[in-house]
Amino acid sequence: MKTVLGALSLAAGALSLRRARRSGSFRGKVVLITGGSRGLGLLLARRFAREGARLALLARSEATLERAATELRRAHGAAVLTLPADVGERAQVERAVAETVRAFGRLDVLVNNAGIIQVGPYAHMDTADFEAAMRTHFWGPLYATLAALPHLRGRGGRIVNIASIGGKVAVPHLAPYSASKFALVGLSDALRAELAREGVRVTTVCPWLTRTGSYRNVSVKGQHALELTWFALSDSLPLVSMSGERAARCIVEATRRGAPRLVLAPHGRAAVAAEALFPGFVAAAMATANGLLPDPAPGGDEARVAHEVPSRLAPSLLTRLSERAAARNNEL
Questions:
Q1: What pLDDT, on the 0 to 100 scale, is given for residue 47?
Q2: First and final CA of the chain: distance in angstroms?
Q3: Confidence class of residue 1 from pLDDT cuts 50, 70 and 90?
Q4: Bridge partners, residue 204, by sequence
């Protein structure tokens, strides 16, 4: 019996090794990450850097980019190109892709990760909020994809679109975010079907609430302190949210396999399944959740950045995991 078990173990190990070899390594590959200077984008950059990838990081802040690049060079010896740009500006995105190819001679992976979050009741959201979300979550990935495609075709290129559970199940008090992420999911799935024959694999990623420290930079409307509190706690508590490092590891592995979709965390998979099988129940649950969230309030139309909003619970002991993540992931 021991001989049989040993043989089975060796066979399983050999199969895993063959699969890993078929999947390939990122060593020497060029990976362009939008929103790559902090949060989940920086966590992904670290994972790719550990495997020897060459990195192009695109973000709006030069200072944040330089901090991220300095860390990646020192900790991992990575070759890093910084690209100050706004993903919502097509000319800037096209220039960033061209600079990446000029610097490294190729492009193998595009990760559309840049994101913004506006928290608050729909009553306080105006068209500018929806336009900003669409510029970042839909037009930005589309611009980057159009610019990158000529360099991805014929070399087994990868496109990874970081959407959200909010792009599969609409969440109250996150209307611009959910609407734009739904649009990104549709774009990503459509591109996957049409680009498959060109050898370009497209992965749609729908993360669950992830502890990257990003809550510190969300935009808040309505009853600012209360809105920030519910969002920060949801984004921080371990039984509700998942580790940013784990999310990054899963995304890199899905990229390696060219997986069509990745829904992160059991909570996320359960939510997507419930929406598909029991839409009426989910609609009622979301309406109930909305009733528990803060009501609109006078002065709520003003948008404030989370770290400028006074709140007794954010930051606090309850958000400690997110605070540590913010310090690690360049979010402060």
A1: 98
A2: 57
A3: very low
A4: 161, 261
Please pick, among 122, 143, 177, 215, the residue that the annotation labels catalytic: 177
Task: Catalogue the long-range contacts made by 163-167 (C-beta closer than 8 Å, 24 or more residues apart).
Answer: 163/137, 163/188, 163/204, 163/205, 163/206, 164/206, 164/207, 165/206, 165/207, 165/208, 165/209, 165/263, 165/267, 165/268, 165/271, 165/272, 167/206
Bridge partners for 161 per DSSP: 112, 204
pLDDT of residue 14: 44
Q: Hey, which residues does 300 pair with through a beta bridge?
A: none
What token pair was written down for 14?
A: 């050999």
pLDDT surpassing 50 at residue 130: yes
Q: Is 122 marked active-site?
A: no
So what's the pLDDT on residue 24?
Answer: 81
Distance separating alpha carbons of residues 206 and 237, to the nearest angstrom: 19
Classify domain 24-215+237-297 by CATH architecture. 3-Layer(aba) Sandwich (3.40)
What does the domain layout of the chain look like in residue ranges? 24-215+237-297
